[in-house]
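fwd from M.: "can u put these together and see what the complex looks like"

so here's what she sent:
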Amino acid sequence: MTNITKFEKKSAARKHSIIKATADLIIENGVNNLTHREIAAKAKVPLGSTTQHFSSLDDLKAQALTYLADMLDDILQEIDVELARNSSPAKLAQLLYEYLQDTVRIHADVAFFVASTDDPSLRPLATRWFDGLVAVLSKHTDKEAAQAIAVFSDGALVYTILHNEPFSEAMMTNIFANLMKSGGKES
Amino acid sequence: MTNITKFEKKSAARKHSIIKATADLIIENGVNNLTHREIAAKAKVPLGSTTQHFSSLDDLKAQALTYLADMLDDILQEIDVELARNSSPAKLAQLLYEYLQDTVRIHADVAFFVASTDDPSLRPLATRWFDGLVAVLSKHTDKEAAQAIAVFSDGALVYTILHNEPFSEAMMTNIFANLMKSGGKES
Amino acid sequence: MTNITKFEKKSAARKHSIIKATADLIIENGVNNLTHREIAAKAKVPLGSTTQHFSSLDDLKAQALTYLADMLDDILQEIDVELARNSSPAKLAQLLYEYLQDTVRIHADVAFFVASTDDPSLRPLATRWFDGLVAVLSKHTDKEAAQAIAVFSDGALVYTILHNEPFSEAMMTNIFANLMKSGGKES
Amino acid sequence: MTNITKFEKKSAARKHSIIKATADLIIENGVNNLTHREIAAKAKVPLGSTTQHFSSLDDLKAQALTYLADMLDDILQEIDVELARNSSPAKLAQLLYEYLQDTVRIHADVAFFVASTDDPSLRPLATRWFDGLVAVLSKHTDKEAAQAIAVFSDGALVYTILHNEPFSEAMMTNIFANLMKSGGKES
DNA sequence: TATGAATGAGTCTTCATTCAT
DNA sequence: GATGAATGAAGACTCATTCAT
């Protein structure tokens, strides 16, 4: 390993720690309350580092949101695996209920939405979860039901944020049962 | 009409025009991008007027959001009236589809959500639509189905914002049919 | 009594209540923290009244300080009367100690000083107490001792403000005894 | 000298020049009439620099007052040295008379007093001179006389400010003679 | 390349004073 | 004369971004 690569590694590590700190602050304070100073403090790097590696605060924000979106992909994969074993409405409800209990992830989801409200170029981050969920569900039900469930799950996210508690697992079980059944019949 | 009431009327009118301008800007630019200067320009009043009647920008924001929320109540009442005549899933889907086509109103709804994300005291504004819709729907189906439809409709709102087009009316018809039927059975 | 005089009386009463409220606020918040709004609120008069009867806030401040200075004259007269009966150092110390315990009056004295620091035209208000005390004391001791005691008493005022408790009465007795004795001898 | 220390030196120099400018303005205009703008103009630095190194205007004010207080300590030390050689009342009167002739220093003293009137946390600055003077005097007379002289000297400061001329040196000589004699006798 | 001081544009907010009613 | 809405000047403060070192 040459010195140059060492440098690069070090630099990349620092860059990553800044992205991570930014992501943490997005979860904590919301996506509209970022400042270079707070990010530098959280990441324990000099202020200059937060402008050195990123063309602007918006750029850094976008990268942090992307980082968070990648994280959400992991949940999706877990859901995919679980549904392969058991795709009953109750199982699906359970999996989504767990997701709604994860403060970090639902705040990340909110951040995608809020950010894309101000900057349309960030919309793909906000639709990634929706599209992914539809794809996973489509393996077990028809496309229309999959979409219905995905839309419902976004509604449940909103409910959870506004009520400070996840939408009822029992009701989700019933609802998913109906949506999947009907989906199967109608498509 | 005495001079005093004339005064009050004029003053109230100006205050209202500031609130209206703020509401317009919320719809146009999002709830996180308000400044006294832009509000004053939009309302065509001097900068000082925007602080004369409101204790802070947050206060003004809250009043503008309340004004928008009151506006949404009107739609709800229309839906209430329409459903009294015909509460079929297709009719419900049609009414919500119309709502989702109204850019101003869905952006208002988003503003409630986004604002309450940063300031919990604004949450009641964000839940007002949800609670109202549940109340209206409860006249025609059981409570659980009413909630399911309301949650779904929030999801459809998110879908609409993120995709720049309302969620399919046809699919909503199917979905509501299932949710209402099931609601009827289970309760 | 004609209507006009009634008006005048009413107007004068209102003006006086504004001056009184201003004086109260000077004691409470210091002479540098006056606003028309707070004065109007304290006096329970409309905002306009506080500018109608006074050419400026500085004018109002000056009148309020004059009102307070007049109040201090009363103490001086009491001291004068008391000293006529007993002009011993102990009596004098007791009288000044009482004065130093009166929060309102010492804050008034501070206000004169602070105000005259910013506006030399107010200096006469600040020297009125000093000059009056010298005059009263001069009846019982020579001029030089009278001045010495007056200067000392201003120092004791400063001490009292900074230490939040009056300067020792016992020490004042000793000190006055020396200053008066010496004054008698040396002049 | 490394680059880093060069940086620090330059930065510290600028910070110091801002504090110095603030101190100058306190002497010139009084402690209640500071603005960032005037400070920046006086220090010949951009407006932003006056907020870069100080958390608030109050913080800057406090640092400027501390700077002035440190300056006053120097006089005290001179007095200490002089009194070691000759602690006669006449010498003491001469030293204090010199002090009262120094416009900058007496205005600094006034600033401590006025500032601590609005912000009790600044009181230690205002009592520093008094406590120091008592300590120095205590080497040459008893504690009570030392306190008496210090109180008197605060009174003489007030006199000087209000009359625009120092209190008489001759009278101070007499007064100190009496206070020290009595002190000597009573302790 | 890394750093953080420097800058200045822009923000909210306060309030004396004016003046229409 | 009485009122309080209207105005705008001025203030404190924040912070993204630049750039000298």
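replying to her w this: The two ends of chain C are 58 Å apart (CA to CA).
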